[in-house]
Amino acid sequence: MNPMVIESPVTKVSEGRTGRLGGPPVRASSWHERFLTKFKARRPGAYTFQMTFKTVLAAELNPIQTNAWLCAGVAPRPIAFASTVDAKGVRNLAPFSFFNAFGSNPPMVAFAPNRRGRDGTVKHTYLNATATKEFVIATVSHAMVQQMNVASAEYGDGVDEFLKSGFTPLEARFVKAALVAESPFQMECRLHREVELGTGPGSGLMLIGEVLCFHVDEALMKGELPDPARLDQVGRNGGAYYTRAFGDALFEIAKPAGQPIGWEALPAVLKQSHLLTANDLGRLANSAELPDLSAMAAKAGDPTDAEGLEKALQAALRNEDLGEAWRLVGLRVKG
After folding, report:
1. Whether the Cβ atoms of residue 45 and residue 268 lie closer than 8 Å to each other
2. Could you list the residue range(s) of the whole structural domain that residue 98 is in?
3. CA 135, CA 112: separation in Å to the nearest integer?
4. Rounded to two decimals, what is the model's pTM?
5. CA 73 to centroid of chain Cα atoms
C-alpha cells in the first residue's frame, strides 16, 4: 500500500532569516538557493514565505518504509559498534545506529538491534547480549568505516565478524565480549534492561547497558577527556549516507551563561537587516546582558555606512570578539 501524502501549505511571518533575504544571493547549496527563492519581502524586517509540507502518515507505511523515514530525519546518529559473544564464546560484531547515552549516574547507554523489517526475526547481537548480560560498544572512526561496513552484512549463525571484517579482538577487563583494537573509544557494559517496543517486523528491541569502564586511545586525549577534534568519529544518516565529525564539520558553541538577553532584546534595526544572518543575531541574543549602546564610541577607520558596519559586526562575531560586536551594534543603532 502506498502511504497517504498530505500536502499542507503553511505561511509563516518571521523577523529572522537563514540568509540574506530580499538582498543579494547568499553562498549556499543548490538546495538552499532553491529554498530561499520561496521567500518574498513584504516590508522591511518581516518576511513572508510559503513552505509546502509533505505529511506522511506513519500508519500507512510498512516497516521498511518507516525505517527509511526515521533514518532520514533522525540524523546524524552515532554508531554503536556492538561486540558480543554467544553462550559458547563465539564472537559477534555489528554496527547499530539507533544508539545514544541516557544518563550519567549510573552511566547508561542504549542501542537497538531491532527485529528485521522483512520477517521480524531477531539478530545475533540481541540474542547474545540477552544471554550473557553484557556487551562492548565501540565507536567508529573514519579510518575503520569500510571494515565496519563489511561487519554490517548478515552472516549465518556462528560466523565471527572480527575475522570477516579484519578487526582485531582484544580481551576486555570486565566482560567476555572482545574490545575492538582499531576503535579509538569504547565502553564495556553490563546489560541493565531489555525493552521490547513491539513484536512485529521492524519493531524495537532496546538494550540498556550500564557502563563499567571507558577505553580511549591515550594519543587522542586533551586534558582529562577525549578530544572531539581527533576522534574522527563517523555518524549515520539516511540511505547510504554517513557523516564525518572532523575538520570544518566540527564547531563550538558556548552554552548560555545563566539567562541570555534573548532575541526580543535585540535592536529592531538588526532584525531588519538584509545582511545579518539568524546565526549572527542568535550569537548576540546569547549575551548575558545588553550593554549601553548609547555609550559605544566610534574609532578611527570604522565604516560609516550601514552595510560596512554590519560586515564589520559579522567579522567581530567570527573572531569571537563580542565586545567589539556590541560596539559596532551601538554605532549601527545610532545610524
Report:
1. yes
2. 63-249
3. 13
4. 0.81
5. 11
DSSP 8-class letter at 287? -
Number of domain units in the chain: 3
Residue 257 located in a structural domain:
no
In 3-state terms the chain splits into helix, strand, coil percentages (rounded to 5) of: 30, 30, 40
Angle at 163 between CA 111 and CA 156, to 5 degrees: 65
CATH number at residue 220: 2.30.110.10
Cβ 333 vs Cβ 326: under 8 Å: no
Per-residue pLDDT 10s for the chain (335 aa) are 455 444 444 433 333 333 333 333 333 445 444 444 444 333 344 444 567 899 999 999 999 999 999 999 999 999 999 999 998 999 999 999 999 999 999 999 999 999 999 999 999 999 999 999 999 999 999 999 999 999 999 999 999 999 999 999 999 999 999 999 999 999 999 999 999 999 999 999 999 999 999 999 999 999 999 999 999 999 999 999 999 999 999 999 988 878 999 999 999 999 999 999 999 999 999 999 999 999 999 999 999 999 999 999 999 999 999 999 999 999 999 98
267 contacts 333 by C-beta, under 8 angstroms: yes
> Three-state DSSP class for 169?
strand
C-alpha distances (whole Å) from 114 to each of 56, 171, 315 are 23, 27, 48
- C-alpha distances (whole Å) from 274 to each of 20, 196, 318 are 5, 51, 18
